[in-house]
Specification:
The chain is of the alpha/beta class and 342 residues long. The chain contains ten helices and 14 strands.
């Protein structure tokens, strides 16, 4: 029997990793051991972040760094899926989390090729739509519209911080781009529960109470995006951070970067004077649009920190300068590594 596969996609910062993490937390909370779940995480740059942010447990996790799965990692995806299915007895389902600039249609086509089509079957393309930033993101990359146009299900996220105007514009765009898609608005916990139910019984009618009629062929691409998946218009740069950073200063530095830095994510060793202690620990730092946030990362054992920035014409040296200004220990080994998707 072929293993059902769900593609989780959405533009930079829409909440894909948060959703998958919440799904894993639900499975861990109920002590799920019988049905194994495979997680494949595709990273745009050469340094992986998202895979390290995913919780462990009774899942099999595989990272695909170094390029966008929809345009340069086709053979790697084939090999990964075949190896995952053949080497994991009891594998019940697979979640493929794409990069923030991937277009899902080429991935759907790839899943129909032999011999992959004998191992997996595509259950649904689930696209996360950031209600707060969708309208502003559309001019940045053709993949923003393509992700929605090819969706079976659109999960509208960030509604709690989006203005009424932005949220309404995002929902109207979904209706225009993907009129047959199921549109869901809810909390991350509610959407994780829905995804959990889908993975538990992927053969049941699950889209608006009925089976999906969405056929992923050449006709479901948005007409403006015919050749977009070869370029995307989004660059990625990364910085290795071997030292300890002042977390508050790092947040201030990242917040000061210009608007073309659409998404920044990183794992760093840090101290945070706001906590009233100088204890060094691991933290994860995010910037989505202009908003910067961070939280402690427990039980992690990374050799060194790293930060990735994504957006049009992002600059490795500017990112390195931000990190350098926040270093609380020796910064001479700071290494900037630019990466531009081909």
């Amino acid at each position: 029997m072929r293993v059902p596969l769900v593609i989780v996609t959405g533009f930079l910062g829409s909440g894909k990793t948060t959703l998958v993490n919440r799904l894993l937390a639900r499975r861990a909370a109920r002590g799920e051991t019988a049905d194994k779940l495979g997680i494949i995480v595709n990273e745009l740059g050469e340094i992986g972040i998202d895979g390290a942010l995913l919780a462990g447990g009774t899942t099999r996790q595989i990272e695909l760094p170094g390029g966008c799965v929809c345009c340069v990692l086709g053979d790697d995806l084939d090999r990964t899926l075949i190896e995952l299915v053949d080497s994991t007895p009891g594998l019940a389902a697979i979640v493929l989390e794409t990069t923030g600039v991937a277009e899902p249609l080429p991935i759907a086509w790839a899943l129909e090729r032999a011999p992959v089509d004998q191992r997996v079957r595509l259950t649904a393309i689930v696209t996360l739509v950031d209600a707060a930033n969708f309208r502003a993101s559309r001019p940045l990359s053709a993949s923003v519209d393509a992700q929605v146009a090819n969706a079976d299900v659109a999960l509208v996220t960030k509604t709690e911080i989006a203005s009424h105007h932005d949220a309404a514009a995002a929902i109207a765009a979904i209706a225009e781009l993907a009129p047959r898609a199921l549109v869901r608005r809810g909390t991350t916990d509610e959407e994780a529960a829905w995804l959990d139910d889908l993975l538990a019984d992927p053969t049941r009618p699950h889209l608006n109470g009925q089976a999906s009629s969405h056929v992923h062929d050449e006709n479901c691409r948005h007409p403006d995006n015919v050749d977009a998946y070869t370029a995307h218009g989004i660059d990625s740069v990364s910085v290795r951070v071997p030292g300890v950073v002042d977390l508050e200063e790092l947040e201030d530095q990242l917040a000061a970067l210009p608007a073309n830095y659409v998404r920044i994510k990183g794992i760093v060793r840090s101290i945070d004077g706001r906590t009233g202690t100088d204890v060094i620990g691991w933290s994860v730092v995010h910037r989505v649009g202009p908003r910067v946030s961070s939280e402690p990362l427990s039980a992690q054992d990374h050799e060194e920190g790293r930060i990735v920035a994504l957006g049009p014409d992002v600059d490795a040296e500017a990112l390195a300068a931000c990190v350098g200004a926040a270093i609380a220990s020796k910064a001479s080994d700071l290494l900037a590594e630019p990466y531009t998707p081909r």
